[in-house]
Amino acid sequence: MESIMRNFFLFLGKSKAVNTFAKKFGHKLGASKFVAGETLQHAIETASRLNKDGRVVTLDHLGEFVSTQQDANASAQMILKTLDAIHDSQVESHLSLKMTSLGLDIHKDVCLKHMYDILERAKKYNIFVRIDMEDFAHCQVTLDIFKELLTHYDNVGSVIQAYLYRAEDDIKELDAYHPNLRLVKGAYKESDKVAFPDKQDVDTNFNKIIKLHLQNGNYTAIATHDEKVIQQAKQYVDEKNISSDQFEFQLLYGICEDLQKQLVKEGFKVRVYVPFGVDWFGYFMRRLAERPANVWFVLKNMFK
């Protein structure tokens, strides 16, 4: 049943018709629990509030899979404005982005030009930029661009998804660059030809790549709400005397608030992924697909 629900929400997330409908009723559907508003000002206010609680953030202007140069340019300009706002407000924040929002599907060079502009601005402000990983079809080109950017910038990182068979090999190959990586389980629907179909295998691989990347001495952002994984990571860094400067825990805005605050209380760095913008539907559907409890939250809000 859980698998059917997951596939259903991932299917809806790709529907343009449902997306258009949902934008009109987003708050009624409960999107505001997971998305920090539609405007940059909303995002900065949320980041400031989380900072006061002891949490740092990464801001993400939602958008993906653009198909026109005009849309890619607009997305890039919004990302540059977000960097300006982070700098001007002095909130403690990184920036996250998806390269399909910058024209990756139009042409690699279109995306690269925007990435260079963004990283130059971010370097000027001393802001770190995280390239989010998307579906498997974009995995190799994302890592190719990431490696190219690492030859010019040290303020850029990317993401490795544990549900992909290739994750361990990617960690080993990227080690030569000493990269800052966010490690996640993965939230897209993928074929069992490229991804572990069984949750237990994903969890096992997730723990494996966390330990591998930490063991390599590279900065590790452990992005999960799975308390068992978090506990295992805490035990591992304690056993290996790994400095707290080498890792952080990352959680999504609106999910596991008590866990976030508890980790801060224990002295760990906690970074909250804070998405904002009008193009929130695909992201929202992936959150519902990940956690059945989120579905009940939405249903309760719909009938209030």
From TrEMBL:
Its cofactor is FAD. Residues 43-298 form the Proline dehydrogenase domain. Keywords: FAD, Flavoprotein, Nucleotide-binding, Oxidoreductase, Proline metabolism. Pfam families: Pro_dh. Pathway: Amino-acid degradation; L-proline degradation into L-glutamate; L-glutamate from L-proline: step 1/2. The keyword Oxidoreductase applies. It catalyses: L-proline + a quinone = (S)-1-pyrroline-5-carboxylate + a quinol + H(+). Its EC number is 1.5.5.2. PANTHER family: PROLINE DEHYDROGENASE 1, MITOCHONDRIAL (PTHR13914:SF0), PROLINE OXIDASE (PTHR13914). This is proline dehydrogenase. It comes from Aquibacillus rhizosphaerae.
